[in-house]
Amino acid sequence: MANSRKKISELPALSVASLDTTFVLGISGSTTYKISINNLTSSLDGAFATDLVTNALSNTLDTKLSTSSFNSYTASISTGSLVTSISNLNTFTASVTTASIVTSISNLNTFTASISTASLVTSISNLNTFTASQSTSSLVDRLNTIESVSGSWITESETGSFLTSLSGAISSSSQLTSSYDTRYTLSGSVSAVPSGTISGSSQLTSSYDVRYTLSSSFSSISSSFNSRFNGLVTTGSNTFSGSQIFSGSMVVTSGQIIASAITNNSSSLFLQSGSNLYVQNNGLVEITGSLNATSITGSIAATNGVISGSTQLTTAFPSKTTGAWSVPAGASTQSFTVEAGASYTMWVNGNIPNGIITWNATVTTSNTNVPVVGSQYGWYYTAGNALVLTAMPDQIIGTTNTLISSPTSYAPNTSNVFKFGITNNSGTTQTINYGYIKLS
Fold this sequence. Notes:
11 strands; 9 helices; Immunoglobulin-like; six-stranded mixed beta sheet
């Protein structure tokens, strides 16, 4: 059959039966989805299918192909490129097997058979309803609004001029490099920090002692502050919280120091000339150490049995009397005399190298012409024999738990004199101590 060219309008009319009405919709993996017009036309109007396929297609193609733009396009296509395209198409169709086409048609038929006409009609109806609700004027208004807003946005050409005139300005901390020391140099109307000024605690090194050197202006401020502070604590009443430490002297020229306790640790409390110490309102003075009084010129008044002066030592209080004998070498008699009519505890004590004598007694005297009732004990160191107690007082009589009545007399006016016989074998004069305490 010879090749001949015809226009679309010159082609014979197509019928539904003569068309290959199976179309590929898509491929997913090894599955190809197709649709068959034949299955659709069984439920659609035959005239609709004919017009859809033949008349509409013919009219559309005639219109498209008769335009000047189509003519210009086809004129620009070279014969060689058309031959290459046809060759590529032939190669592709040759690679498609009849079996794969049959399988694709079968799968498409199965898919389209599952689609009900009613669901397609409903979907088309819903689409028509939605599109009908969208007015052309509302779409135009929205587009105008978007254009008016976006027209005021900054363009790319405008951003290129930003910060171009700030030459030398510091815009971030990354520009502050090590060339700037710990303190930046100030310029303009702000004066630079004077040399030697302490601007941070890092400058206060160990070369500064516990007190920093003050400048003249700061000293004036400090002096003014001290003046005001001193005036503050000397006016009216002041309340101090916590512990207060005075490194100097605290002088109270008038008034009183009232405290629940005054503790004086490891130091002294002095009451100088013209000062007095008063403990009033039944207060207590407790001294756990020693009380050394170098002199007391006044009187000490005390009650409740406390002896504060010699005037309180009356006959009601026991009095102690002591003495010593100078005993010559050889035998001698030594004595001491007590007041008659009183009770006493007495003792004699001598202690030299290789010589010891001791004696004690408890007696009660009455008249000086009668014996003394009591008891006495004496002893000396015989091994050394440097001191020997040879005789004890003979007017002391009495036996424990025994009532006696003799002797009835004693040498007149001598029973209150207690005599001792002592032999000093040391060859030199020795001191022997004695004493007594009046009990009543």
